[in-house]
UniProtKB/TrEMBL annotation:
Lineage: Eukaryota, Sar, Stramenopiles, Ochrophyta, Bacillariophyta
TM helices/strands, residue ranges: 24-41
Protein known as: Uncharacterized protein
Keywords: Membrane, Transmembrane, Transmembrane helix
């Protein structure tokens, strides 16, 4: 009477090898799904923050503009931070006047469009730049000396709807931004208009890496931007 080892049996039955491969693939997919859910959770998927009415601080905005998916703005922020570091200027928080590890207190993003309201295939517009307070105005010359493609405009202080939302300094937060921040904040702002308030048409964002939080302002004062000069599209 002949006998077969397990190795011989599995070698003779291709279906066993196929099931083993399928099981391994399911495990890998399960792990990647869990990792994806974790990063979405960290990025604020389950967060539902409450907006409030407050004030945008204003300042001189030294910026570059582009028309791309909003997720691309993260790379522009990192490029600006590298530029600010290269100025050899001491990094001081303009509000607390304390030394800071990061320049994120000075870096702001102006999101000019709600992607949900744009025509098909039209990319949203944004501007990334340094919002300079009075004590930081000398930084403008240093920025432009390194990269003369930066423009500048004075942004007024003004009324804004404000919301804070978790930020991981990664792609997850940027992907959630249009759905968890931009559209809900603009909706809240326009529902709370009073008197002579204009439509709220732009979101201004600044982030705190150490606290993993971003502050978003919905503003109605857009006259300081001349879009025909900034955007060629």
């Amino acid at each position: 009477m002949s006998s077969f080892s397990y190795h011989e049996l599995s070698h003779q039955d291709p279906s066993m090898k196929s099931k083993k491969n399928e099981r391994g693939l399911n495990i890998i997919l399960g792990v990647w799904t869990a990792v994806g859910v974790f990063f979405l959770y960290q990025g604020g998927l389950l967060e539902n923050p409450t907006p409030r009415i407050g004030e945008f601080p204003g300042g001189e905005f030294v910026f570059k503009s582009d028309s791309r998916d909003y997720a691309a703005s993260g790379g522009a922020c990192r490029a600006l931070e590298d530029l600010l570091k290269s100025t050899s200027e001491e990094c001081i928080d303009p509000i607390s006047n304390e030394p800071s590890k990061y320049w994120d207190h000075t870096i702001y993003i102006f999101y000019h469009d709600d992607p949900k309201k744009l025509p098909w295939k039209m990319m949203p517009r944004y501007s990334v730049g340094a919002l300079l307070r009075p004590k930081q105005k000398h930084l403008k010359e240093k920025i432009v000396a390194i990269d003369d493609t930066y423009e500048s405009v004075t942004v007024p202080k003004g009324k804004a709807a404000i919301i804070q939302f978790p930020h991981t300094d990664g792609l997850t937060s940027l992907l959630l931004f249009p759905y968890k921040v931009l559209s809900p904040l603009l909706k809240f702002a326009n529902e709370n208009r009073k008197g002579e308030d204009r439509d709220y048409g732009a979101i201004i964002t600044t982030c705190d890496k150490e606290k993993s939080i971003c502050t978003h302002y919905a503003v109605s004062f857009l006259s300081f931007f001349t879009y025909s000069d900034i955007f060629s599209c």
